[in-house]
Design a protein that fits this description.
alpha/beta, 5-stranded parallel beta sheet, 5 strands, 59% helix
């Protein structure tokens, strides 16, 4: 089975790519959504984050993800601490997803990965990097409720700490229509099928 990670900077359209892949009947999962679930649901990961980041907890004992983001995107050590708590649980769930796909004899599966690091190269066969201009990405994020200041903070952090170009195997420019994305994905999947059939 061919494991594909969908990566790219903030607002590039990773979720849209994965959504289209799902509509095309490919198995998909989002590591970002898994991480959000772990932060929202009581359990080992949630409780460890509460203990490590008490300032990010609201009056009802829930993790305020905005406060948490403000903390970790201002302090790289804090981000590393958060990742050390959350990522092992995320990858455990992703590994279960891979096993399920293998059991179903799937040929290709896709995982949206918002915060890739060098270890991603050992987990996936390919990394598809989704890109778009800074202005388009900012507009998308603001339209879905993020402030321009939050976008700038997170985007600057990503640019300083993640080299998407170095990690990527293939690139999708997402500045057109959904039909353009569907065509690009179909073309890349056809290439994969030819490679795997050789």
């Amino acid at each position: 089975m061919h494991k594909v990670a969908v990566i790219g900077p903030l607002g590039s359209g990773k979720s849209e790519i994965v959504r289209i892949c799902s509509e095309m009947d490919f198995p998909t999962v989002s590591a970002d959504h898994i991480a959000k679930m772990l932060l929202e649901l009581p359990g080992i990961a949630h409780d460890d984050v509460v203990q490590a980041f008490p300032g990010a907890v609201d009056d009802r004992g829930r993790i305020d993800r905005h406060r948490l983001a403000q903390d970790v995107f201002h302090d790289h050590d804090h981000l590393k601490l958060l990742e050390s708590i959350i990522h092992p649980h995320v990858w455990q769930i992703v590994t279960s997803f891979f096993m399920e796909c293998e059991n179903k004899n799937e040929e290709i599966c896709f995982v949206e990965v918002s915060a890739p690091d060098d270890s991603i190269k050992t987990r996936f066969d390919e990394m598809w990097c989704v890109t778009a201009s800074h202005a388009i990405r900012e507009q998308r994020c603001v339209e879905r409720g993020m402030t321009a200041e939050d976008f700038a903070l997170r985007n600057d952090f990503q640019e300083s700490h993640i080299d998407f170009e170095d990690l990527s195997s293939r690139t999708i420019v997402n500045e057109g229509s959904k039909e353009d994305l569907v065509h690009a994905i179909q073309s890349m999947c056809s290439d994969l099928a030819e490679i795997r059939g050789q």
